């Protein structure tokens, strides 16, 4: 009877040892912060278990003393029972084996994996032990609280939290909900407090600005459109002297044809820029932007004279926008629908194909009102057609063209008025006069005080496929290597060899340049042949005797 009772107590002791040792790891291994997180954001089963365990786990040192004391008592009882059953020597070995296997390895392995759920199931029994052992454990717990202080729990530093996020991103998708892009943004947000304005600002040399002396004409409006910026700094005199910020949407009610000076509008639409310094934290600048004062700031730093002879001065370093700050927060480049998002081999940015087409269409629309300046009037077209037909009947007579197709051919020419071209436009025509067949409308100007730059129409010995009619002004022609110069007045033709011969190009024996304001019209050999062939096809279709074809 005694032996059976001893066996029963031995089994119970093993179970008690199993539970007390496992809970020592299972409960104390749970962090109070982790339990609170599970209660707020865990799964339903985790929430329920965490709510049961948390009140007990908050009594950290008291729980520790209770579990350790229970563990010691169970170990002592098991050793005594083993000695009575098997003797001192064998009993000690058996007790050691039981404690190692059932008191350490198995319970700790289970509770290490399922500590939360085991702890939730065993919590009522632990409360009973805690109350029963309170006279012994309470003084010990109070002493530990006094010596060690309050239990804080696990708190991660910024670098530790970043590393934890990085680790989560490497886990399988079934285990972790975080992806690499999400971890990248979260890590950037953690580092955001340490980032300064100097890390994200645009250097002064790269900032698009407008002079306060600018005129808001069509060209300026198109330039603003092409930049894609919503806010533009305005400077007076030097670029380092920013006097205000304009919001592009404020200009929508203005008519480019009025060409209003920007200076006249600064008092109405100009905004005072906010100032920051390169060492300011982005968190502080973000708060400023959030207040609604502005979405762009100028960056100024104090520069001290090393010799101490001059007073410290503020020096403009660049600008920083809300978009720059948000990009730093997300650690990514934000490309909107107007950004230049393509890089060439040299690292230069360009509009992508869609944006290039869109901007070209908008530019053409913006300059549509100027097309009449670069087209022949009806009277000019008829006069030019009559001039060609009467002066060069072998090339433009009835055998080649009827009156109406000849006028259509004349209208197809590229009309150039150097008075209404910018210097850049004139320069482009001079450098590429053998290939340019269409004007870039953005190179035109409305400025009545514009001074026409000279355009080189032909270069000695340089192949050309154009022939040109001077409509207004004067063209200087330098012949041969002797340099004999002649001034061609209106209704003179240059480069007729382009359509007379059989070759696609000819080599001029002269150099021709415009002199002052000149209007001329130029045609290519291919255009001439195309219109002439159209005439031949039409005559062949209707069977008309070309000798009878005359003026309308």
The assigned structural class equals alpha+beta
On the 0-100 scale, what is the average pLDDT? Answer: 75
What does the main sheet amount to?
A: 6 strands, antiparallel
Cα(first) to Cα(last) distance is 140 Å
Low-confidence stretches: 1-18, 341-351, 541-552
Can you offer a commentary on this structure?
By secondary structure, this protein is of the alpha+beta class. The protein has helices at residues 2-26, 32-41, 44-57, 60-86, 88-132, 134-148, 158-170, 180-191, 218-227, 262-269, 282-290, 322-330, 353-366, 378-391, 393-396, 403-411, 423-431, 497-500, 525-542; strands spanning 202-203, 210-211, 215-216, 231-235, 242-247, 260-261, 274-276, 296-303, 313-321, 342-343, 349-350, 414-417, 456-458, 466-479, 484-488, 493-494, 510-524. Helix content is 49%, strand content 16%. The radius of gyration is 45 Å and the shape is elongated. It folds into four domains: 2-148, no CATH class; 158-194, no CATH class; 197-334, CBS-domain; 370-548, Jelly Rolls. The strands form five sheets. Strands 12, 13, 14, 15, 16 and 17 form a six-stranded antiparallel sheet that branches. Strands 1-9-8-7 form a four-stranded mixed sheet. The chain has 19 helices and 17 strands. It is found in: Membrane. Residues 269-337 form the CBS domain. The chain crosses the membrane at residues 60-83, 89-107, 114-138. It holds the Pfam family CNNM.
């Amino acid at each position: 009877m005694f032996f059976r009772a001893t066996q029963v107590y031995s089994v119970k002791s093993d179970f008690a040892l199993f539970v007390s040792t496992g809970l020592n790891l299972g409960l104390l291994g749970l962090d109070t912060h982790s339990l609170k997180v599970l209660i707020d954001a865990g799964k339903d089963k985790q929430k329920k278990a965490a709510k049961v365990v948390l009140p007990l786990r908050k009594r950290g040192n008291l729980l520790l003393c209770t579990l350790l004391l229970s563990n010691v008592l169970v170990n002592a009882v098991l050793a005594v029972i083993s000695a009575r059953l098997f003797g001192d020597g064998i009993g000690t070995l058996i007790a050691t084996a039981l404690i190692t296997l059932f008191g350490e390895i198995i319970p700790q392995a289970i509770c290490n994996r399922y500590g939360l759920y085991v702890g939730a199931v065993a919590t009522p029994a632990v409360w009973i032990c805690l109350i029963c052992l309170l006279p012994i454990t309470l003084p010990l717990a109070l002493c530990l609280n006094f010596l060690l202080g309050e239990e804080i729990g696990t708190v991660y530093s910024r670098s530790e939290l970043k590393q934890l996020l990085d680790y989560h991103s490497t886990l399988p998708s079934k285990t972790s909900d975080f992806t690499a892009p999400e971890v990248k943004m979260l890590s950037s947000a953690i580092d955001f407090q340490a980032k300064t304005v100097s890390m994200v600002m645009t250097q002064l040399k790269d900032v698009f600005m407008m002079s306060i002396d600018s005129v808001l004409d069509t060209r300026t409006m198109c330039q603003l459109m092409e930049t894609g910026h919503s806010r533009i700094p305005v400077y007076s005199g030097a670029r380092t002297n920013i006097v205000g910020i304009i919001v592009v949407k404020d200009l929508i009610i203005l008519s480019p044809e009025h060409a209003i000076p920007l200076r006249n509008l600064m008092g109405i639409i100009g905004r005072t820029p906010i100032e920051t310094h390169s060492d300011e934290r982005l968190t502080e600048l973000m708060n400023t932007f959030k207040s609604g004062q502005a979405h762009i700031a100028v960056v100024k730093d104090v520069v001290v004279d090393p010799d101490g002879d001059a007073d410290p001065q503020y020096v403009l370093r660049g600008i920083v926008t809300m978009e720059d700050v948000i990009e730093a927060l997300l650690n990514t480049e934000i490309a909107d629908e107007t950004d230049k998002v393509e890089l060439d081999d040299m690292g230069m940015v360009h509009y992508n194909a869609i944006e290039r087409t869109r901007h070209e269409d908008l530019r053409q629309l913006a300059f549509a009102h100027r097309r009449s300046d670069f087209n022949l009037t009806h009277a000019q077209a008829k006069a030019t057609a009559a001039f060609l037909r009467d002066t060069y009947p072998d090339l433009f007579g009835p055998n080649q063209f009827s009156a109406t197709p000849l006028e259509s051919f004349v209208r197809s020419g590229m009309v150039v008025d150097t008075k209404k071209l910018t210097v850049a436009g004139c320069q482009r025509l001079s450098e590429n006069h053998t290939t340019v067949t269409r004007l870039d409308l953005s190179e035109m100007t409305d400025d009545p005080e514009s001074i026409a730059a000279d355009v080189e129409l032909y270069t000695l010995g340089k192949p050309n496929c154009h022939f040109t009619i001077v409509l207004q002004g004067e063209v200087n022609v330098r012949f041969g290597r002797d340099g004999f110069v002649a001034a061609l007045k209106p209704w003179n033709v240059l480069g007729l060899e382009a359509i007379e011969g059989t070759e696609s190009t000819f080599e001029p024996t002269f150099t021709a340049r415009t002199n002052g304001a000149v209007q001329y019209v130029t045609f290519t050999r291919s255009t001439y042949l195309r219109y002439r062939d159209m005439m031949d096809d039409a005559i062949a279709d209707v069977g008309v005797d070309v000798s009878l074809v005359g003026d309308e």
